[in-house]
Write a structure and sequence with these properties.
Number of helices: 2
Order of helices and strands: EEHEEEEHEEEE
Strand order of the largest sheet: 1-8-7
Strand content: 25-35%
Radius of gyration: 20 Å
Largest sheet: 3 strands, antiparallel
Structural class: alpha+beta
Shape: elongated
Number of strands: 10
Distance between the termini: 28 Å
């Protein structure tokens, strides 16, 4: 999303990002993040991006600011719950990741690009 100023009205921020600002909280769906202060009528993109974890790129000379989707974008996970995953082990037998439920697991993936 692109903005023409680093300070925008609250309604525009909520409409563009999907975040609802209330009390000292920013909520998007079931995810809520505490904020340092109650958001006013105007939202400071520098402050809110730091608090929510949205990347902010600015070019003040051309009056252009953009917020990235951050940790809650379309291609990110919204929880730490792993999908059901069944892969062959080194001997070719199927291994179900859910068999390790309740244990800490590190999944290492590699792609040669």
């Amino acid at each position: 999303m692109f903005f023409r100023s680093s300070k925008i009205d609250r309604a525009s921020f909520e409409q563009a990002t999907g975040w609802e600002l209330k009390d000292q909280t920013a909520c998007k769906g079931d995810i809520c993040i505490p904020l340092a202060a109650e958001p006013g009528v105007e939202v400071d993109l520098h402050q809110i991006s730091a608090e929510i974890g949205l990347p902010l790129v600015s070019e003040p000379e051309h009056e252009l600011w953009t917020l990235g989707s951050g940790i809650f974008g379309a291609h990110t996970l919204s929880s730490a719950k792993c999908p059901d995953l069944v892969l062959p082990d080194l001997e070719g037998r199927e291994f179900d990741l859910s068999s390790l439920l309740g244990q800490k697991v590190l999944v290492y993936a590699w792609a040669p690009y």
